[in-house]
Amino acid sequence: MKMDKIEKRVIISSLLLMSLFVFSLLYAKNKYKTDVPECLPYDKAYTEPKVNQLDEKTYQVFSVASMWQFQPSEIYIPVGSEVDFYLTSKDVVHGFNIAQKNINMMAVYGAINKTSVKFDKPGVYDIVCHEYCGVGHQNMRAQVIVNYPRSK
Ligand SMILES: [Cu+2]
After folding, report:
1. What is the Å distance from ligand 1's center to 102 Cα?
2. What is the CA(29)–ligand 1 centre distance, in A?
3. Phi then psi for 60, rounded to 5 degrees?
4. Which residues contact 66 (CB under 8 A, 6 or more apart)?
5. Which segments within the chain are labelled E, that is strand?
6. In sequence order, which residues have a C-beta less than 8 Å from that of residue 124 and are 6 or more positions away?
7. Ramachandran sector of residue 14 (left: φ over 0; alpha: ψ -120 to 50; beta: rest)
8. Cα separation of 50 and 111, whole Å?
């Protein structure tokens, strides 16, 4: 089979570009220590919003998105904590974005998505919904509060 010269060039450049993209992804994953979120088998246990403290600086957060809130909406942890977020939705698809930590997940009904984040610096980290989910979308936010005492 004879292939057109231009077609051949297009195929070769596409393959080179795809390799470059894959290489960039792997490079960024290592350089910025980012992880691709995991998708866990559905389990009702994760649909109850809560914060579990496993040891001094290890936490599990079962985050439940719904129209139009995240529960829990305030998560207090000490600096240096490692947090595993387990995320699901009660209704439509929502987003889960912690911009300061480069975290971007989707909250999907019937699915559990998981990612781990280490909070090295004190501060208030905003969690926002970044998938348009209805009229209250812009109010959908929560906070991870690192090293600040509870107000109550
Ligand atoms: Cu939302």
Report:
1. 18
2. 27
3. -120, 135
4. 89, 90, 91, 94
5. 38-40, 50-55, 58-66, 69-71, 74-77, 81-89, 94-98, 103-107, 112-119, 123-128, 141-146
6. 143, 144, 145, 146, 148
7. alpha
8. 17
Ligand 1 centroid vs 96 CA: distance in angstroms? 8
pLDDT of amino acid 120: 93
Tokens of 112: 């559990």
Distance CA 67, CA 6 (A): 51
**Using one digit for the tens of pLDDT, what is the confidence trace for 103-143?**
999 999 999 999 999 999 999 999 999 999 999 999 999 99
Other beta carbons within 10 Å of 14? 10
Task: Supply 104's token pair.
Answer: 């971007």
DSSP letter string over 109-123? BT-EEEEEEEE-S-E
